[in-house]
Every structure is written in C-alpha cells, then in structure tokens.
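Per reviewer request, we include the raw input and output of the structure prediction for the construct analysed in the revised manuscript.
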Amino acid sequence: MINPKLFINKRILILTAGSRGDVQPYVALGIGLKQAGFEVMLATDPGFSSFVTSHALDFAALRAPFAQLIDTDAGKAALAGKKSFSLKQIKPMLHQMMDDAWDVAQQYKPDAVIYHPKPLAGYHIAEKLNVPGFLAMPLPVYSPTRAFFNPVFGGANRGGFLNKLSYTIFLKATLLSYRGLINNWRQEKLGLSKFRDELTLKGRAVPKLYAYSPHVVPVPPDWDETSIVTGYWFLDSNVDWKPPSDLVAFIEQGSAPIYIGFGSMASQDSRRTTRLVLEAVRQSGQRAILATGWGGLSYEEIANNVYILKSAPHDWLFPRCAAVVHHGGAGTTGAGLKAGKPTIICPFFGDQPFWGRRIFELRVGSHPIPQKQLTVEKLAQSIREVITDSEMRQRSEALGEKIRTENGVTQAVKLIKEKLSRHVQL
C-alpha cells in the first residue's frame, strides 16, 4: 500500500504543444492527478488558457504557435506534402518555447515533469531539477519492438529486425535535427553538458506512458516495464454544455448521419475538399455532419442532408452517428472507437497512416484513403462499405465496449504515484 503522505504538496508540471488533440488528453490526466491529491500546472500554447483553467488546472503559457503555423500558406503546403519546414524557419519558435518552459519550471518548482516530446524541454528540465520525468504521448514511437515498424513511418510489419531498426533510425533522425539547438540551450540556460539521448535519466530508463488502448495496439512481448500502455486519456464533456437545437433536430429527423471532419489539418484548397466531400455524401445516399475544424472545410451551398458543425464534444456526438470519417489523429481515432462506430481514415502524414492501418487490420473500418489519393468515388465507396457491412459494425461495437470499460487516466495516475513513491524512498 502506498503511503498517501508521500504525495502531500507534490507538484506536477505537464508540458505539451500543438493542436487541441495534443492538449486535451493532458488536461484529462491533469484532472486525474489533481483528484489524486497532486498540484498540477499545465503549460502549453496561450490559446488554450481558458480551456485548461476551466477544468480547475493551473496554466502557464508556452509561446509555441503550432496551430497558427499550420494555418498559414506554408503550413498548408507542408500538409499537402509540397514542401516542409526547415529548422531555420522554426528555430526561433522552438527556442522561445524551451525558454518559456524553463521559466515556468523555475517559478513552479515541480517535483516531477510529465512531457510530450514536442516542447523539447521536458526531459532536460527534469534532469536539471533532479526530479522524475515521464515521457507521455498517444503513440509508441520511443519503445523499440520487433512487432511493428515505427508508427511515424506508417507502422507496417516489415519483419522483426527491420521493425526494431526503424526505432533507432527515428531516434537518430530526430536528434540529428535538434541536437545542436538543444545542446546550445542546455549549456546556455541550464548549465548542463551535452546529452546522449532522452531515454535514460540519471542512469534510469525514462518511463514512457502511452495513452491508447491495448485492445487497439496490443502490448509487444519484447517491451520492458518502462513502456506502459495505460488506455486512452478521455476528457468527459462539460456537463453544462448544451448542443445547438438545430443540431439535435438534424440528428433526430432522419437516419443516423456520418461524421466527417479533418480536425486541425487545414486543407490547402478547402473549397475543393468541401465539394469532394459533399459529392461523395450525395453519391453514398447518406446524411452527414461536416465539422469545419480550423476552417479546413469551407462551404457555399449545402444540401438539406448535410449539417455544418463548428464544434461539439466527440463523446456526445459520435454515439449519435452511424460512422466517423477523419484524418486519423490519435484522439479522434480513440473517440470514434470508444463510441463503437466504424471508421474511415483519410490521413495526411505522421502517425495518421498508422492509425488508419490499425483500423483496417482490426476490421473496424475501411482501408485508409490518403489525402493525396482522396476522390469522390473512393470516399463514397468507403462510406457505403462501413454502413452496409454488418459484421464490421458488430466488431466496432464490441471493441467500443472493451474500450469503455478501461480508465486510462486512473491507470496512468496509479503508475505515476507508484514511481514517485519509489523515487521518494530512494
């Protein structure tokens, strides 16, 4: 039994950056930690200040405008695969983000740091403060395995040796890009020497918490105890949130609609994307809810079988839909699976093809359609498939039932408490 006195006034600093999908799971984790008796400070983009504080968590700003960057012409071109950002372009932003993280840490004086890799500074701050660090993210890219290729590269099974090698390549490639920047910052800001890697801290392996269900990606048999799949970190919708009356009326006036939304992945040609999606919906004969996200879908004339949605909590909306179509973000994928709905993933890049592959392999959705290959005919056919395939729908519901019995936040908090207890006792 863990002595609760060990956790009195324990302060946890959570660092993350990116889109809503990169922040929301950490808010859920922060709530769980606070309910367990911890003090929690969540540091991320200033645009999420009210979102974080509305859940009674302390907030600190990291000036890391990833959202704004993606919404620029250059960002949209990068999403479309036409060009990529150079380190020179984003170096000032990254440096500012790390400086902010260190300023927050000095003021807050945390007893542990939980960090997404994007802010770059989490591991190094934990080292400087001599406190435990926890790498936390919804994707298993930092734990080598023979079971599947690194998810950043799509996750296909290319054979045991090549699968494991892909993690070494990923880690070396990632550090190659940022090592100089980070080492200069470590020396100038933290007074630390050059680092070797980010997988060991003070001679111990860094715990890696992966926020997804083991029913979606089974735990590889060759992982050690420092790689932990906790289950999804779902954030329940605000009890005070009320759906728009016209949305409720639309849902109730006919068959369950298809949800279609590409989240923060703003299209370089949103008008073209909208026309494509609307025509696919028309050809499929279904009703649809189109989520505009950050403006990735624009519209002019909308048929009466389509509802344009600005926003709604996934845990309220998805159970009322027949299927979900999206870009394959980890959070949206998890929400659709929890609701027990068949899925169509149209990935842009990164880990999105990995989740699309997993959906298809689990037979709870259609074959993924990469955005570069997205056509009216392919999308319409996939919609018809997920609506008419009764076995797929049954498998989706069965998987949803399993996920709904899990509590990833509770599991993560338990593991964090156990590891902090060992640290205190050393």
